[in-house]
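quick one
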Amino acid sequence: MSVFETFLNWDVFVRVLPLLLSGLWVTFTLGLLAIVLGFAGGLLLALLRLYAPTPFRQITVAFIDVFRAIPILVLLVVTYYALPFLGIRLSPFAAAASSLSLVSAAYSAEIFRAGIQAVARGQFEAAKALSLSPFRTMTDVVLPQAIRVVIPPITSNAINVMKDTALASVVAMPDLLKQATQAQALTANPTPLIGAAVIYLAILLPLVRLVALLEKRMAAGHR
Amino acid sequence: METAMRPIIRMTDIVKNFGSFRALTDVGLDVGEGEIVVVIGPSGSGKSTLIRCINQLEVHDTGTIEVDGHTVTRGAGLAAVRAEVGMVFQSFNLFPHMTALRNVALAPVRVRGLSWDEANQRARKLLTRVGLESHAEKYPAQLSGGQQQRVGIARALAMEPKILLFDEPTSALDPEMVGEVLDVMLQLARTGVTMVIVTHEMSFARKVADRVVFMDAGRIVEQGPPEQIFDAPRDPRLRSFLNAVLSH
Ligand SMILES: Nc1ncnc2c1ncn2[C@@H]1O[C@H](COP(=O)(O)OP(=O)(O)OP(=O)(O)O)[C@@H](O)[C@H]1O
Ligand SMILES: [Mg+2]
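structure w/ magnesium ion:
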């Protein structure tokens, strides 16, 4: 067999495609869920970190630091293999989704905090002077301005989450990578792995390009 | 001039520190309902700090402030006070992601609970009043400084405040735009709303003020009707201040 036939075997690819697609679906739902939860959790953490009374603020800072420091793979293995000893038994999906969301929330929190702090002090003062509630000040005045600053780094964070879903294959999560490795074992051919790599690239490359574009637009938009 | 006015703002023995720096020292100021008070003084004398204490953008350390019978403190009563006090800022502080109309309509909807339709209608009237009816749909960045500040005034008026605070409303403007903003303020002064104005525009102060308050180093040093302050200043600090600002 030629190198080409070995690494990009069309017959093998067609045979394992359904398996890869089911893996892609799992990767997609896992990634999307973790992105949404991480986004919401990150916003909440950022607000707590900025505005909560001191003890809660300190707890939030510690929480954010811990989840930014811990390797996702370690967190994943701990939630899946160690928590059962405490009687907490998570499915692979739940273990992966919670690990990815927690880490993503911690990173998003710092991004949101920077975004909120980039909003001019006069904006907060104008909102106060108009007697807007803290909630309305956030939703109407501060966040719409913060979000512009935050879009490129938060998209970049979403890409990282998507990439990190691949780590879930170590807890027997049937995601794209896991399906590809299984298919490789089944067919005794590396084509499924190449296929998976191409699919990852097909999804993530445009997003990486998008971030670059957004960043360029932000830089141009600064007067 | 009208000395029998009921005070709508009462500030008594106000002290404000920034760290170890004392920005206000035992300041007492009563402002009558409908009175126009202009605050003047050198840079750093505490003018901004004084008026920002009225709506608690700065929280004073000791002393009492009453606005329309409400004692101003942190917490519950503050929202009621702020809803009665409008503020116009030196740097406009318009919301850049909203049209002029939205800037003006926002607080009545969010704070007073008006519908957007009603608030927009009233916002249009206010924009007309400041001469900007044709600019309602523009964003702040599309407006000149003078136009932005007039939107700022309309926004403050939208809450129908009894008191309007102005902190150097024309200082950030190109000279040719100062007049349009002062005109709007003059026109407002005739409506009976109480105004406390920090400004360096002395001829405007003379024209509009019922009373001029001169501050220096965190204290009110001298106050009185504009003729007295500008034509017969007593305190040497006021005299040298006036010499400095009127000589150029
Ligand atoms: N947030 C702050 N932190 C520390 N010092 C402050 C703060 N705000 C004001 N100050 C100081 O308090 C003093 C009074 O300031 P304030 O802004 O009230 O002066 P001002 O009379 O309005 O001056 P200007 O004409 O320059 O606006 C100044 O010396 C200023 O440096
Ligand atoms: Mg000032």
